[in-house]
Design the sequence.
């Protein structure tokens, strides 16, 4: 059976949480909470961009001190996020939305996006547009928090990610991963098989190709300099430790200082 090519995070949506089973979203949520509390005096309205199936938004909503809104490009991921919020009985709203085209009438105290989501922006000009667009949706004094993965992270993780497979009972998936160090592009390719619940036979096969750009810290700092933001901090990994050019994952904290 020929695999059908799909938009990213459509056929992957039902297997995403299985694929990420090893990720400790609760600790990641605590890290984001720590950053918000360290750098904002009265954070209330929080927007997560590229929230996927909502695990981080839900973990922050469980703290019961924020109004949480989560958005993602993929309506399939958002549907799962809504189901999870209702299952865990947490107050969080989820909407499909492109993070380059944020459209809310109200502004936020904090906007965040993590887990390499901005690495999908492969051009530096797109990353600058992302900064400009998010800035419009923040209150003065508000924070933008985003992480990005660096070439070191791609080089270190590619063997672990390659030839990875899993099973949800209803779906089987295979991932291959390669990193083009010259172009700084990380490719993850997924084949997803949908199984007949009665016979276990494959009834559909889907294929998604994900391309992400690895950014160095100096590249991102130079884009931030061109943006309307003030740099507050850059953290290495999951600690409040200053990032360096050698960091594998960097979490940036930027402040909106000027009213729009
Ligand atoms: C690696 S997943 C991370 C999801 C979630 N943040 C998490 O921690 O599990 C990347 C997410 O970025 C989303 N994404 C990619 N491009 C986007 C865009 N232009 N606007 C909004 N979301 C986007 C995808 O749909 C996907 O859910």
Sequence:
């Amino acid at each position: 059976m020929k695999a059908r090519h799909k938009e990213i995070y459509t056929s992957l949506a039902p297997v995403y949480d299985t694929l990420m089973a090893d990720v400790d979203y609760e600790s990641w949520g605590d890290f984001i909470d720590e950053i918000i509390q360290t750098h904002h005096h009265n954070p209330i309205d929080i927007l997560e961009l590229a929230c996927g199936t909502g695990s981080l938004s839900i973990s922050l909503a469980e703290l019961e001190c924020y109004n949480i809104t989560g958005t993602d490009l993929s309506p399939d991921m958002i549907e799962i996020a809504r189901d999870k919020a209702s299952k865990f009985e947490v107050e969080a709203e989820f909407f499909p939305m492109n993070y380059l085209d944020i459209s809310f009438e109200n502004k936020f105290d904090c906007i965040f996006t993590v887990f390499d989501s901005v690495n999908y922006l492969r051009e530096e000009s797109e990353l600058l547009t992302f900064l400009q667009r998010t800035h419009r949706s923040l209150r003065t004094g508000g924070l933008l928090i985003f992480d990005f993965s660096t070439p070191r992270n791609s080089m270190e993780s590619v063997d672990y990610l390659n030839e990875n497979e899993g099973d949800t009972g209803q779906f089987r998936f295979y991932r291959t991963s390669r990193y083009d160090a010259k172009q700084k592009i990380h490719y993850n390719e997924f084949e997803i098989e949908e199984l007949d619940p009665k016979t276990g036979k494959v009834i559909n096969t889907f294929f998604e190709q994900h391309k992400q750009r690895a950014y160095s810290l100096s590249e991102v700092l130079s884009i931030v300099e061109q943006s309307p933001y003030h740099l507050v901090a850059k953290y290495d990994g999951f600690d409040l430790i200053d990032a360096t050019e050698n960091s594998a994952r960097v979490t940036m904290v930027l402040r909106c200082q000027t009213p729009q």
